[in-house]
Write a structure and sequence with these properties.
The chain has about 400 residues and is mostly beta strands. It folds into 2 domains: about 170 residues, Jelly Rolls (Sandwich), CATH 2.60.120.10; about 150 residues, Jelly Rolls (Sandwich), CATH 2.60.120.10. About 10% of the residues lie in helices and about 40% in strands. It is built from 8 helices and 26 strands. The strands form 4 sheets. Strands 4, 5, 6, 7, 8, 9, 10, 11, 12, 13 and 14 form an 11-stranded antiparallel sheet that branches. Strands 3-22-19-24-17-16-15 form a 7-stranded antiparallel sheet, with no helix packed on it. Strand 20 and strand 21 form a beta hairpin. It is globular. The mean pLDDT is about 95. It binds manganese (II) ion (2 copies).
């Protein structure tokens, strides 16, 4: 059956908000996209505090081109999709069991978070030191720029993961592929390089593989190759094994080069916010923030100075960005746990908490600015909460 002729399923049950806030606004008379409007209630009816002409800071992987192959798929969110994120690009990739993201390297460093399933990853460094590991849900890996590597789905239904690159211009379609290089080198040169007859290369692929289907590999121990010894710092990290920072509203796990030394250019936090809770008002003194939403529903207002503030809604599979130094909060507006990743192009995680700043500043000075009572200032928690409860 030709699946292209099947009628597309459409969700009709959405009840989109009308752009009415008190006395302001009016109903929409013209064409509507009810699904998208229902996804973005704080865009249709923005908080009255929003103002100005700020760039877009939300993209959904659902709007990214899917590159389909026999071994799985990939889709990306780069500066071309989300122009407010020049420092970081993301790729969402799926590999079936046995499916291989072929041996390759690239100019950007690659950081990854395993969303579901398991994969075998391999790499070697410039001194021939080797790395092989099997990674599962919540595990990370990091391959520095130029380091050759591979990823293969193993067991059950394979895996799906998020890749983060320390360059917003990165493209998963422009990596250096083993098969691509071999196909573009004269066979007599291949023969001379490897010291074998030309006939050895009679059956190499004529074009690149990118993602292809192979046999599911055997046990990891059988795939270990000593090479010139192991890499000095492991290239994988068990993020979920870290004891989280717990607060009244949720948990935060912070992974930067202090706990994952190989990850020299990417720092991250995995944040869980319970319903009604909020990632507290803060900003980052070192770099842009790039977010990936794993589950739940959120809204974020970004404050950009000069009267500018804009609110965005997020759900699973969405990407958010916060340009350097801009103030923001992230509120769980759903009835399930909100889980998302904050990712930074930096060797270290850093944030400045609005509460801590006010709590640790002479109270008379703060009161002179805001006309709030000392009793309010006295209640401000000076140990950073990161996530506040409802
Ligand atoms: Mn890669
Ligand atoms: Mn932040």
């Amino acid at each position: 059956m030709n699946t292209k002729t099947q009628p597309k399923q459409r969700v009709q049950s959405f009840n989109p908000p009308e752009p009415i806030r008190g006395k302001d606004g009016a109903s929409i008379l013209g064409p509507r996209n009810p699904c998208r409007e229902a996804e973005n209630p704080d865009t249709i009816v923005s908080p009255a505090t929003d103002h100005g002409s700020m760039g877009n800071m939300r993209w959904s992987f659902a709007d990214s081109h899917m590159h389909l192959t026999p071994g799985g798929w990939g889709r990306q969110t780069t500066v071309r999709e989300l122009p407010t994120s020049p420092e970081i690009a993301g790729v969402n990739m799926r590999l079936k069991a046995g499916g291989v993201r072929e041996l390759h390297w690239h100019k950007a460093a690659e950081w990854a978070f395993m969303i579901k399933g398991r994969a075998r990853i391999t790499a070697i460094d410039q001194d021939g030191r080797t790395f092989q590991d099997d990674v599962g849900e919540g595990d990370l890996w990091y391959f520095a720029a130029g380091i050759p590597h591979s990823i293969q789905g193993i067991e059950g239904d394979g895996c799906e993961f998020l890749l983060v690159f320390d360059d917003g211009n990165f493209s998963e379609e422009e990596t250096f592929l083993l098969s691509d290089w071999m196909a573009h080198t004269p066979k007599e040169v291949l023969a001379k390089n490897f010291g074998v007859p030309e006939s050895a290369f009679a059956r190499i692929p004529e074009k690149d593989l990118w993602i292809f289907q192979a046999e599911v590999p055997g046990p990891l121990a059988a795939d270990r190759i000593a090479g010139a010894g192991p890499v000095p710092n492991t290239l994988s990290h068990r993020m979920m094994a870290q004891e989280p920072i717990r607060s009244s509203g949720g948990t935060v796990r912070i992974t930067d080069s202090s706990v994952f030394p190989a990850s020299k250019t990417i720092a991250a936090a995995l944040v869980e916010v319970e319903p009604g809770g909020m990632r507290e008002m803060h900003w980052h003194p070192n770099t842009d923030e790039w977010q990936y939403y794993i589950s739940g529903e959120a809204r974020m207002t970004v404050f950009a100075s000069q009267n500018n503030a804009r609110t965005f809604n997020f759900q699973a599979g969405d990407v958010g960005s916060v340009p350097f130094a801009m103030g923001h909060y992230i509120e769980n507006i759903g009835d399930t746990t909100l889980r998302f990743l904050e990712v930074f192009r930096s060797d270290h995680y850093a944030d400045v908490s609005l509460s801590q700043w006010l709590g640790f500043t002479p109270h008379e000075l703060v009161r002179a600015h805001l006309n709030i009572d000392e009793s309010v200032l006295a209640k401000i928690s000076t140990p950073k909460k990161l996530v506040v409860g409802p």
